[in-house]
Amino acid sequence: MNSQDEIIQRMQLRIDAMEQELEKVKYLHDQLFDSQSLFSEVTENIIQVFWMTDPNKNNMLFLSKAYEQIWGRSCQSALDNPYSFIDSIHPEDRERVLASFPKQIEGTYDIEYRILNANAEIRWIHDKAFPIKNAEGNLYRVVGFAQDITEKKILLDELRIEKEKSDFLLYNILPEEVAEELKIKGSADAKHFNSVTVLFTDFKGFTQLSEKLTPSELVSEINECFSAFDYIMQKYGVEKIKTIGDSYMAAGGIPAANITNSNDVVNAALDIQQFMHEHKLKKQSEGKLFFEIRIGVHTGAVVAGIVGVKKFAYDIWGDTVNTASRMESSGEIGKVNISETTYELVKHNFNCEYRGKIQAKNKGEIDMYFVEKVSQNKQ
Length: 379
Known about the structure:
A hairpin with a 3-residue loop joins strand 12 (about 350-360) and strand 13. Strands 6, 7, 8, 9, 10, 11, 12 and 13 form an eight-stranded mixed beta sheet that branches. Helix content is about 45%, strand content about 30%. Helix 9 packs antiparallel against helix 10 (about 260-285). It is an alpha+beta fold.
């Protein structure tokens, strides 16, 4: 083979090699075109906004069509002016979002914020980003997904409001500790308390007086008095148990045991006494009918818990409750009548008058005391 033939042969080999490279390029081109087509098809049909930036140049490279639906602006306008995205962030959230941008290249960018779309409507966005590195391990791109979560936020807010209403009603029916136990377990265990101070009140001649008042006047009068009692119980940390007709029942030392309950309840009883005295003077000055009250207090052991499966009620049981009721019925109008057991617990803090042994229904004779006022020695 002469030199000319060798040259032709080498040229043919080069041509063959070039054709093979062209085939590879064409194949890669076709693959890339197919990938780009698939990428465009996918990103244009997802409801989230797919975005891509060049973190080295701080350029926005790509935004999917969902951006136009959520933001109400064209993708091209955002690509031409990346600051338009920043301007769309709600003013109250903007600083927080900007401060979180460095997290995009750390892979920890995951944030919720509000935007104002082209119609000045507030939309909630959940935005999450992931860093992309090249073969050398250098940061190459940042890609992310932004999703409109406005409807979810509205639903969660509605659920939160309904939960707050439900909790408000539950805490008005039950003590907080018991309500929490009921929410967690679905039930609340009855508990024994060794030292609880129970208070009973009752209006004198309620039946006769109610016959002289209209139904609305009667309800208004009871509501005014019992509402005042409620505030007094709250003031001293005493738990209202229930009302029965014109009777009001409360207890100190539940649902959380304490060593101050006897003094707390006697203080509350004296405040009720003072309120009813002032209420009487006011009604007399207006020429209106008024209630007068008896108050009884006793300290002892009780069992406390929830009864029923509907219209939950927190209640207490035991001989202590019965004795406290007898303290009320054995008392006198406008007086706070306490048992000897309670007296021994509060005698150093209050001035008390010994009444002697008083006959109590189904209880026999019981030593009773009237509480007059807070002891001057202890003020």
